[in-house]
Amino acid sequence: MTGRPTTPRGRRERPAKPALTREGIVAAAVAVLRAEGLDKVTMRRLAQELDTGPASLYVYVRNTAELHAAVLDELLGTVGTEPSDGDPREELERVLMAYTTMLMEHPSLARSALTARPSGPHYLNLIETLLGLLDACGVAPARAAWGVDLLLQFATATAAEHAGRDTSSPAEGGEEWDALAHALRTASDRTHPHIAAQAGSLLSGGPGQRMSWGLRALINGIERTALPD
Amino acid sequence: MTGRPTTPRGRRERPAKPALTREGIVAAAVAVLRAEGLDKVTMRRLAQELDTGPASLYVYVRNTAELHAAVLDELLGTVGTEPSDGDPREELERVLMAYTTMLMEHPSLARSALTARPSGPHYLNLIETLLGLLDACGVAPARAAWGVDLLLQFATATAAEHAGRDTSSPAEGGEEWDALAHALRTASDRTHPHIAAQAGSLLSGGPGQRMSWGLRALINGIERTALPD
DNA sequence: ACCTGAACACCGTTCAAGT
DNA sequence: ACCTGAACACCGTTCAAGT
Questions:
Q1: Integer distance in angstroms from CA A34 to C1' D1?
Q2: What is the pLDDT of residue A11?
Q3: B72 Ramachandran zone, left/alpha/beta (phi>0; psi -120 to 50)
Q4: What confidence tens digit (pLDDT) does each residue in B107-138 have?
């Protein structure tokens, strides 16, 4: 019974408890996010994963919100931002759809992103890309600058709305939404004539159609609306 | 030492532990929200407030998210929805500003609202009002129906973005935002030419101006963008 | 049916102490 | 400087048992 000494010289037994770094923490966070969702990405859980105590993480990360923002910037690396040669409007739609699709796989991360915006390199690249595309669409630069905010907010919020619906709790979020759908469908045309008349339209369209229409409406609005002096 | 009998007959000693009802729970939740913010509106805290155990609340409320949605619908009662005679565009802006302003006093509630939409009477009234105003602006009914979603999402998300900044933690959220502002200001014009050129515009404007411009852009976009067939 | 105590399985963050 | 154990002050939700 000599096997498996508890303090071996060999470096291969375990990854040998890698030194704690911000990158290591973020990488572990991304792994836990992919495997089990954002609400397992907690200080305590990460500490456990990295074989230390939660207090140690606070040397590298200010708080949970900052950690989530760093995770999002990391995932943003997935969203392609290579320049393209096609119609800039279509490209704009494509990039924002890609961003939204990525966030929809982690809707609770989208929720975080609304409050704690990332400021990492990938997020900057995304902003740069969007400004370039709006410019290519002929939108005045100052409008484009404010417009980027609007577009990113729309994409983020759209993804955030799906939190609770998809991954973690298939029941919960769905029921809230059903409650609203039911209320709209059964609204009295005496007290709520417009709702009663438009119930069909209010509930029509899939998420993709809504998103796509919303983006086009936003872009149309941005290029036509003058900034305040 | 006879004072303060522990089981008095008089009904005035305390409010006599009012019977548990959904309304009572929501009312207590609103009170706690006003006094101490949403993150004190917890099942445990409410139970304590109502002189019972947390388990008892689950008879009337499915979970915390549903409770928060009910609280929001309650607060929506504050947002005036009386018909007006002025310019419908201005009125539209006024109503949505009022909605946003209300939510900004409780930004974390806005965050909840993005996921768990209310479906109570006050929310329905708001939708009805918005549909009416878009109609008065001459927007085609089906576009108005999809547009209401866009407008409410924008207003809610704008309020939600301020969570963490204002009430609870004056430091935290501000620092995240500063990080982005700093990154934009110092972006290299070699790698990020558009950002470098537009840094001023990207960071200009107060929340009120941004909100107002965003609403106008949205309305312009909504009335000009055809629905998919 | 309604209500409850107690338990299960967690959280974020801080701080004094160690190395 | 970096790292840690332990503590403080909480959470949501469920369940078996009572009335």
A1: 33
A2: 33
A3: alpha
A4: 889 988 888 888 889 999 999 999 999 999 99
Cβ-based neighbours of A102, under 8 Å, separated by 6 or more: A75, A76, A78, A79
Does position B52 have pLDDT exceeding 60, yes or no? yes
CB atoms within 10 A of CB A81: 17
Residue in the structure block whose two tokens are 């045309």: A189
Residue with tokens 């805290």: B45
Task: Tell me the whole-structure pTM to 2 decimals.
Answer: 0.87
The verdict on a CB contact (< 8 Å) between B216 and A221 is yes
Q: What is the mean pLDDT of residues A221-225?
A: 96
Chain A window 188-227: which residues touch B at a Cβ cutoff of 8 Å?
Answer: 191-195, 197-198, 201-202, 204-205, 209-210, 212-214, 216-222, 224-225, 227
Q: Report, in ranges, which bases of strand C sit under 7 Å from a protein C-beta.
A: 2-7, 10-16
pLDDT score of A7 more than 80: no
Please give the domain boundaries of chain A with CATH numbers for all domains. Answer: 18-61 (1.10.10.60), 80-224 (1.10.357.10)
DSSP secondary structure letter of residue A137: T
Q: For an interface test with B, give the residue of A64, A67, A89, A119 to mutate (most B CBs within 10 A).
A: A119
CB-based contact A137:A219 (threshold 8 Å): yes
Residue A83 pLDDT > 50? yes
Count of beta carbons in the 10 Å neighbourhood of residue B229: 3
Interface of A with B in 134-163 (CB under 8 A): 135, 141-142, 144-150, 153-154, 156-158, 160-161, 163
Would you put residue B164 in left (φ > 0), alpha (ψ -120 to 50) or beta? left
> Which residues have Cβ atoms closer than 7 angstroms to strand C?
A 40, 42-45, 54-55, 58, 63-65; B 19-20, 52-56, 58-60
- pLDDT above 50: residue B8: no
Residue A138: CB atoms within 10 Å: 10
pLDDT above 70 as % of chain A: 85
B138: left (phi over 0), alpha (psi -120 to 50) or beta: left
Mean pLDDT score, B193-208: 94
